[in-house]
Specification:
Length: 203
């Protein structure tokens, strides 16, 4: 489990394209400290498994399903990425519960800078809109953010200078894709209420 508090802005140092997958080599001095084979590291909000690591770099395999469901497929050598290690048991939950399982992708639609913050508008797939509410939580490229406004096919978030400086959202421009993970609690509630309603219909 992650919390959406990005620890480090890393970099793709190599991409190996395979038949139905690809292998990334990534640089991240902080997240590779003490890393072991099989550990999880979130890359732009996608939970990946450490295959190998050496120095301040680690290697991760990305299967076709992940490439199709996320924006990792557009990454190339030199791309900057958000990195986060799993939350330790007993640690503070600084953001919200993040699984590292991307629900879909959105696109940066607009950026409105202000003196001390920036408002970013992001497109929202129709099948995810019901999970996104004003002042609720959403994960964008692995970053835990609070929704400012939620429309039928978009939402907005406000970014403070720290987020702009230390994550990929300070670099993304209109047209760029982002990974989205909605609040998992909303999905479980919907499933449980749907099951209860179905049981009631049979009585």
């Amino acid at each position: 489990m992650f919390t959406g508090i990005v620890e480090e802005l890393g970099e793709i140092t190599a991409v190996e394209t395979l038949d139905d997958a690809c292998r990334f080599r990534l640089r991240g001095p902080l997240v590779t400290e003490g890393a072991q084979h099989g550990d999880s590291i979130a890359v732009n909000g996608v939970c990946l498994t450490v295959v190998d690591h050496e120095g301040d770099e680690f290697t991760a395999d990305v299967m076709a399903e992940t490439l199709n469901r996320s924006s990792l497929g557009v990454l190339t050598t030199g791309s900057r990425v958000n990195l986060e290690r799993p939350t330790a048991v007993g640690a503070r939950l600084g953001g919200h519960i993040v699984q590292g399982h991307v629900d879909g992708t959105g696109e940066i639609l607009e950026r409105k800078p202000s003196e001390h913050w920036e408002l970013v508008k992001i497109s929202l797939p129709a099948d995810l809109a019901r999970y996104v509410v004003e002042k609720g939580s959403i994960t964008v490229d692995g970053i835990s953010l609070t929704v400012v406004d939620a429309g039928p096919d978009f939402f907005t978030v406000s970014l403070i200078p720290t987020t702009l400086a230390l994550t990929t959202l300070g670099l993304k421009q209109p047209g760029d894709p982002v990974n989205l993970e909605v609040d998992v609690i909303a999905k479980y509630v919907e499933r449980l209420l749907g099951a209860r309603a179905a049981q009631g219909d049979t009585k």
